[in-house]
Amino acid sequence: MSSLPRSFYETDDVVSIARSLIGKVLMHEHSDGITSGMIIETEAYSGTNDKACHACNGRRTARTEVMYGEPGHSYIYLCYGIHHLFNVVTNRAGRADAVLIRALWPLKGMDIMQIRRGTRNLTGLCDGPGKLTQALAITTNLNGLSLTGGALRIEDQGFQTDQNAILQTPRIGIDYAEEDAALPWRFLISKPERSVSHPHRLLPDH
DNA sequence: ACACAGATACTCT
DNA sequence: GAGTATCTGTGTC
């Protein structure tokens, strides 16, 4: 299986990259075992001009530093003191774009995911940005690592994605971002619709 | 099927 | 000190 190359992440259209990441596979080889899942929900954060982005107005701190760094690297931060949220840095160094991975369709190591998540259910393992990092044992100590090879990586495993099955909506949980809160920069695959992040599914239930 | 509150610790003012 | 790109359990319908 081939990891996505650096060039995949290096362009300046983070919204297109967020769309293109749907159907790709996030994989973590850990001493516990291998866990992986197909990416089914993403959000684009567009650097210094985006009021929802941590790098808004050129904000540059210890936390946001990796967003200004190399494309194809991880940006992982702690949210609400509990949840580790996983992003991929995009665009060339000096820009601060990133794509948040919000949900996965579990592929490998679901038994390990169940243990890490503390559930006996086979559903709901990776249907939220904080849940998928717990299921894949992704924490802030993996911040700033390259995703183009190594234990944590994103692969193209050849899953075909019907472009008509990709829905586009506003982003979640960023009400503070004023007019940018309405930008339709969230992408989700409509097929496993029960597996996208939960309270904001925005899809009819049928 | 909602709605709500509480947990939690780090980041930046 | 305030705010946070969230999740869970409990309550109610």
Give a verbal description of the structure:
With 206 residues, the protein is an alpha+beta fold. It has a single domain, classed as Roll (3-methyladenine DNA Glycosylase, Chain A), CATH 3.10.300. Helix content is 13%, strand content 30%. It has four helices and nine strands, in the order E-H-H-E-E-E-E-E-H-H-E-E-E. The chain has helices spanning 6-9, 14-20, 110-117, 129-135; strands at 2-3, 25-30, 33-46, 74-79, 83-90, 97-108, 152-156, 166-169, 186-189. Strands 1, 2, 3, 4, 5, 6, 7, 8 and 9 form a nine-stranded antiparallel beta sheet that branches. A hairpin with a 3-residue loop joins strand 4 (74-79) and strand 5 (83-90). It is globular. It starts with a strand and ends in a 17-residue tail after the last strand. The chain binds a DNA duplex (13 and 13 nucleotides) through strand 4, strand 5 and helix 4.
Topology:
Elements: E1 2-3, H1 6-9, H2 14-20, E2 25-30, E3 33-46, E4 74-79, E5 83-90, E6 97-108, H3 110-117, H4 129-135, E7 152-156, E8 166-169, E9 186-189
The structure holds a DNA duplex (13 and 13 nucleotides).
Secondary-structure element series: EHHEEEEEHHEEE
Q: Could you state the CATH homologous superfamily?
A: Methylpurine-DNA glycosylase (MPG)
pLDDT < 50 stretches? 200-206
**Looking at the structure, what is the overall shape?**
globular
CATH topology: 3-methyladenine DNA Glycosylase, Chain A
Mean pLDDT: 93
- What count of helical segments does DSSP give? 4
Distance between the termini: 35 Å
